[in-house]
C-alpha cells in the first residue's frame, strides 16, 4: 500500500479541490461579464452516470454485484469531436462500470447516457488488456483518441493497482485500438501519473508526454521508434514545494508550428516552459525557461490547442485565460468563465465544430467527501466572455 500513500492527496490536489469549502469567488483580475450563450450550444447537465447496457439483465447483474453504483461515477476530463464527447470516468470508487465513455452534445439533448468506448470488453477491471482507470485523454489532429490509464482503481477507498500504467491510442473513425504503450518500464511503484499530452514533431513523428508528479519527471514516448525515456526535471522545479503534489503540463502551439511544454507543480511558486524539441531529444538540462512567479496556486485546466492556457485558482469557480505570447503577469489574465452554481471546472476543451471553448465542471469537492446523495452534478458548459 505504501506505493499508493500519496495517491489520495494527489487526487484531491490534482483537481484543485480546496481542503475547506469552495470560497465565494472574487473577480481578482477584473470584471467578468457574461456574453450571450452560443445559440446552438447549450450546457448539458447530468447527475451520477447512466450507461447504455447491452441489455436490461446486464444492468441488473452489474447493480446487484456492486459493479454499478451510479453515485460513484464522475467525469473529470473530456474531449470533443463534432457532436460527440468522450469522457474519462476515473475509478475513484467502486461501481464505475466503464472508465472511458462517449455521449452526444447535439442541441436538444436532454438526457445523457454513456456508451462505453470503444466497447464493453475494454472496460473490464483486472483484465490488463482493458482500461482500468482513465485519468486523462487527448484527441489529436488525426482523430486519434489517446487515453492515460493509471492501472489503479478505488483510489478514494482502498487503492488497488490492478495493472501497469499505459497509454492507449484508438481510432475515432473505426473504434479500433491502434497502439498500447506500456509505461511499466518508465515508471516506479511510487509513480503518480496525472496528465497526458500528444505532440507531433515537424517530421511527423508522434510523441506522448505524461507527467509523473512523484518522480518529478516527464515521460516521453516516441511512437515511431517505439521507445521512451524519462526526463527528470531539475530540483528548482519543486523548490518551495511541500509535497510533489500535482504536476500540470500544457502543450502550446506557436503560429510557426513549433510547440512548447508549460509545466508547474500546484504548490510551487513558479511556472516553467521547455521547447518540445529539447524534450523529444531528452536534453532538458539548462534549457528550461523560468517564466516567473505565479500569483496564486494555479490549477491548469486546459489550452485552446493554440497559444492560450486556461486556469483557475485553487478552490475558485472563476476561469482565466492567459495567452502565452504575452508576459506571464496578472494584467494578462483574462476572466473568461464562472460557474453560476459554484461548480469547479476540471477541463477546458476546444469545441472545434462550434468554434468555442467548453468547460467540464462538477461539485467534485462534494464527491470527494462522499456527500453527493444521488451522485455528483456534472455539467458540460460553454465558455462565455471573450476568449
Ligand atoms: C490543433 O491545432 C493544429 C495546428 O493549428 C491543427 O493542425 C490541429 O488539427 C488542431 N487539433 C485538432 C484536434 O483539431
Ligand atoms: C498574442 O496573440 C494574439 C492573438 O493570437 C495577438 O492578438 C497578440 O498581439 C499577441 N501578443 C503578443 C505579445 O505577441
TrEMBL record:
Question: Keyword annotations for this protein?
Answer: Secreted, Signal
Where does the UniProt annotation place the signal sequence? Answer: 1-24
Keyword match Signal: yes
Q: What is its main location?
A: secreted
Q: Pfam families from the xrefs?
A: MRJP
Which InterPro entries does the entry link to?
A: 6-blade_b-propeller_TolB-like (IPR011042), MRJP/yellow-related (IPR017996)
Q: Which GO terms describe its cellular component?
A: extracellular region
Top-level lineage group:
Eukaryota
Query: What protein family does this chain belong to?
Result: Belongs to the major royal jelly protein family.
For this entry, the protein name equals Bee-milk protein
Amino acid at each position: 500500500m505504501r506505493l499508493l500513500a500519496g495517491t489520495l492527496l494527489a487526487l484531491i490536489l490534482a483537481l484543485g479541490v480546496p481542503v475547506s469549502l469552495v470560497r465565494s469567488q472574487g473577480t481578482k483580475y477584473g470584471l467578468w461579464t457574461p456574453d450571450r450563450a452560443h445559440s446552438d450550444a447549450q450546457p448539458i447537465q447530468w447527475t451520477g452516470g447512466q450507461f447504455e447496457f447491452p441489455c436490461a439483465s446486464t444492468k441488473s447483474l452489474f447493480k446487484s454485484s456492486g459493479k454499478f453504483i451510479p453515485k460513484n461515477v464522475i467525469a473529470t476530463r473530456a474531449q470533443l469531436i463534432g457532436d460527440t464527447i468522450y469522457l474519462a470516468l476515473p475509478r475513484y470508487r467502486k461501481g464505475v462500470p466503464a472508465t472511458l465513455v462517449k455521449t452526444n452534445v447535439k442541441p436538444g439533448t436532454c438526457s445523457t447516457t454513456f456508451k462505453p468506448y470503444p466497447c464493453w470488453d475494454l472496460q473490464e477491471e483486472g483484465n490488463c488488456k482493458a482500461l482500468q482507470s482513465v485519468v486523462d485523454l487527448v484527441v489529436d489532429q488525426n482523430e486519434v483518441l489517446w487515453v492515460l490509464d493509471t492501472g489503479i482503481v478505488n483510489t478514494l477507498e482502498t487503492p488497488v493497482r490492478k495493472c501497469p500504467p499505459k497509454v492507449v491510442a484508438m481510432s475515432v473513425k473505426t473504434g479500433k485500438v491502434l497502439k498500447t504503450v506500456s509505461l511499466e518500464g518508465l515508471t516506479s511503484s511510487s509513480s503518480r501519473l496525472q496528465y497526458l499530452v500528444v505532440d507531433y514533431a515537424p517530421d511527423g513523428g508522434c510523441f506522448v508526454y505524461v507527467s509523473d508528479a512523484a518522480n518529478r519527471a516527464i515521460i516521453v514516448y516516441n511512437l515511431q521508434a517505439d521507445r521512451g525515456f524519462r526526463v527528470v526535471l531539475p530540483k528548482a522545479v519543486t523548490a518551495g514545494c511541500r509535497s510533489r503534489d500535482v504536476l500540470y503540463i500544457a502543450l502550446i502551439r506557436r503560429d510557426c508550428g513549433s510547440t512548447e511544454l508549460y509545466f508547474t507543480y500546484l504548490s510551487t511558486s513558479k511556472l516553467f516552459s521547455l521547447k518540445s524539441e529539447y524534450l523529444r531529444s531528452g536534453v532538458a538540462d539548462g534549457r528550461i525557461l523560468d517564466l516567473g512567479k505565479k500569483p496564486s496556486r494555479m490549477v491548469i485546466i486546459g489550452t485552446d490547442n493554440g497559444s492560450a492556457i486556461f486556469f483557475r485558482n485553487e478552490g475558485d469557480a472563476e476561469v482565466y485565460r492567459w495567452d502565452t505570447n504575452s508576459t506571464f503577469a496578472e494584467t494578462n489574465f483574462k476572466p473568461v468563465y464562472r460557474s453560476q452554481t459554484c461548480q469547479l471546472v476540471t477541463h477546458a476543451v476546444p469545441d472545434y465544430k462550434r468554434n468555442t471553448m467548453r468547460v467540464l465542471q462538477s461539485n467534485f469537492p462534494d464527491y470527494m467527501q462522499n456527500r453527493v446523495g444521488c451522485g455528483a452534478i456534472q455539467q458540460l458548459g460553454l465558455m462565455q466572455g471573450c476568449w
